[in-house]
Design brief:
By secondary structure, this protein is mostly helical. The protein contains 16 helices and 2 strands. It is found in: Cell membrane.
Length: about 450
C-alpha cells in the first residue's frame, strides 16, 4: 500500500490535530493517572477475595480456580483490543472501558454481599455469576490496559524520549493504594459493594478529569513557543491510526516472527511479578521458616522495588538505550532470583527480592514499545498480541510450578522463573539483531 498522500483522510486528520509540546507533557501526566486508576480499581478487589471464599463456602482448590477467572478473561480477549482501538481510539476506549469495568467490579462485590453466610446458604449460581463477572472484568482490563499503553506510546513518540516506564509506576502505585484502602475497608466491616462502588466512582471521576488532556491517536507535534530554544519537535511519522502495510523487507510472516522474542522478553518481566505475588509468601514460609506476617513482606519488598525502578527507569533507558537496558535488567533478574532461591541468610533473600523488583521494572513497558513498533502489522496489533501472550503465560506459569512441585523440592520448581528470565535475556539479543536489519 503506498504512503498516504497529503490529501488523504489520514493526512487531513493529522493536520487537524497539531499538538504543542506543553500539551504533550500534560498528556503524559494524564496517561499516568489513567494507569493509576486502572491499578486502583483492580487492586481494591483483591482484599475482598477472602470474603468471597467464605461467602461461597469454597475450599482452597475451588477458590484458586475461581480467582483465575480474571486472568482467564484477560487472556480470552486475545487481539481484540487492536481493532477496538483502531475503530474508536485510545481516549474513548479508556473512558468507556473504565466506566463499564467499574460497574462490573461493583456487581461482583454485590454478589459477595448477597451471598454472605448471614444471608443463608449460597447458591451455585452465585459462584458462577461471580466468576463470570471476574472474566468480563478481565476482558475489559485487557482492552483498557492496551488503550493506556497506546496512549502512553503516543505521548512517548511525541516527546521523543522514554516515559512509558514511569507511567507504569502509576499503575504500581494505584494497585498498592487500592489494595491498602481495600484492606482498611474490609477491616472496618464495609460491604464489598459499597467499598468497590466508592472506589470505582473516584477512579472514574479522576479518569474523566484527566481524559481532557489525552492526545488524539492521530495527533502530530506542532511548533511550541514554550519549548527550549534549539529543541526540535519530533518529526511526524506515519499516523498511529494509519495501517502500516507490509513492505518487501517485512512481509507479514516476518512481522509475526519478529514478535516472538519481544513476547519472550515480556514474559520474563511478567514472570517476576508472578513469582512475587503467587509464590514468595509460600517459599518464605515453607523453605525459610518465616511466619505468615513476615512472609508477606517478601512480595511487598519486590513490588516496592519495582515501583522505585519504574520511577527512574526512563532515565536509564534514555541513557543506555532499550537493548542494553533490557539485557542489563534481565541479567540482574536472573542473578537476583538465583540469590533468592539459594541464599541461606534471610537478609540476602530480601536483597535478592529487591533486586528482582528493580530488574524487572522496565522490562514489560519496553517490550510493549518494541512490539508496537514491529513493522508490517496493523496499528496496535503488536502491542495487543504481546500483552495477550504475556497474560497467557501468566495463567500457565503457576500451574506449571505447582505441577513440578509435586515431584521436586519447591526451590527446584521455582527455578522456572530464573530460567524464563534467561530466555528473555537471550531474546534481547535476537530483538537487537532483528532491529538492525534494513
Amino acid at each position: 500500500m503506498p504512503p498516504a498522500s497529503p490529501s488523504s483522510p489520514a493526512a487531513r486528520r493529522a493536520r487537524a490535530h497539531p499538538v504543542a509540546r506543553r500539551d504533550v507533557v500534560r498528556a503524559r501526566w494524564a496517561a499516568t493517572l489513567a494507569f493509576l486508576t486502572n491499578g486502583a480499581m483492580l487492586g481494591a478487589l483483591i482484599p475482598h477475595y477472602p470474603q468471597a471464599k467464605a461467602a461461597f463456602g469454597l475450599d482452597a482448590d475451588a477458590f484458586g480456580l475461581l480467582v483465575v477467572a480474571l486472568a482467564a478473561g484477560a487472556a480470552a480477549a486475545g487481539s481484540l483490543p487492536a481493532p477496538v482501538l483502531r475503530r474508536w481510539g485510545s481516549r474513548r476506549v479508556m473512558l468507556a472501558g473504565t466506566v463499564v469495568m467499574a460497574v462490573v467490579v461493583v456487581a461482583a462485590g454485590l454478589v459477595v454481599d448477597l451471598s454472605a453466610p448471614a444471608q443463608g446458604r449460597p447458591s451455585a449460581g452465585a459462584v458462577w455469576l461471580f466468576a463470570a463477572l471476574l472474566g468480563v472484568a478481565g476482558i475489559l482490563d485487557a482492552v483498557v490496559d492496551t488503550a493506556q499503553n497506546a496512549q502512553g506510546l503516543t505521548v512517548q513518540t511525541r516527546l521523543a524520549r522514554p516515559v512509558l516506564t514511569s507511567m507504569h509506576a502509576g499503575w504500581s502505585l494505584g494497585a498498592g493504594l487500592g489494595a491498602g484502602l481495600g484492606a482498611l475497608a474490609v477491616g472496618a466491616g464495609m460491604p464489598a459493594g459499597l467499598h468497590l462502588g466508592l472506589n470505582g466512582a473516584v477512579c472514574v471521576a479522576v479518569l474523566v478529569a484527566a481524559g481532557r488532556r489525552f492526545l488524539p491517536d492521530d495527533a502530530r507535534p506542532a511548533p511550541d513557543a514554550d519549548a527550549p530554544e534549539g529543541t526540535a519537535a519530533p518529526a511526524p511519522g506515519p499516523s498511529p491510526a494509519t495501517p502500516r502495510a507490509p513492505s518487501p523487507a517485512t512481509p507479514r510472516a516476518a512481522a509475526w516472527l519478529a514478535l516472538l522474542p519481544v513476547t519472550v522478553v515480556a514474559m520474563a518481566g511478567f514472570g517476576v511479578e508472578e513469582f512475587g505475588n503467587a509464590w514468595t509468601a509460600l517459599f518464605l514460609q515453607s523453605e525459610r521458616g518465616l511466619d505468615v506476617a513476615a512472609a508477606g513482606l517478601g512480595a511487598s519488598t519486590l513490588l516496592l522495588a519495582q515501583f522505585v525502578g519504574r520511577l527512574v527507569g526512563d532515565r536509564v533507558l534514555h541513557r543506555l538505550g532499550r537493548r542494553r537496558t533490557l539485557a542489563g535488567s534481565l541479567a540482574v533478574v536472573v542473578a537476583a532470583l538465583v540469590l533468592v532461591l539459594t541464599a541461606p541468610a534471610m537478609p540476602l533473600v530480601f536483597v535478592g527480592l529487591a533486586l528482582a523488583g528493580l530488574g524487572c521494572a522496565v522490562v514489560v513497558p519496553t517490550a510493549y514499545a518494541l512490539g508496537d513498533k514491529v513493522p508490517g502489522l496493523p496499528p496496535r496489533t503488536g502491542l495487543a498480541v504481546v500483552s495477550w501472550l504475556m497474560r497467557l503465560a501468566g495463567i500457565a506459569l503457576s500451574p506449571l510450578v505447582g505441577l513440578l512441585a509435586t515431584g521436586l523440592p519447591l526451590p527446584a520448581a521455582l527455578a522456572v522463573f530464573p530460567a524464563l528470565a534467561v530466555l528473555g535475556l537471550v531474546g534481547t539479543g535476537v530483538v537487537g539483531r532483528r532491529r538492525r536489519r534494513p
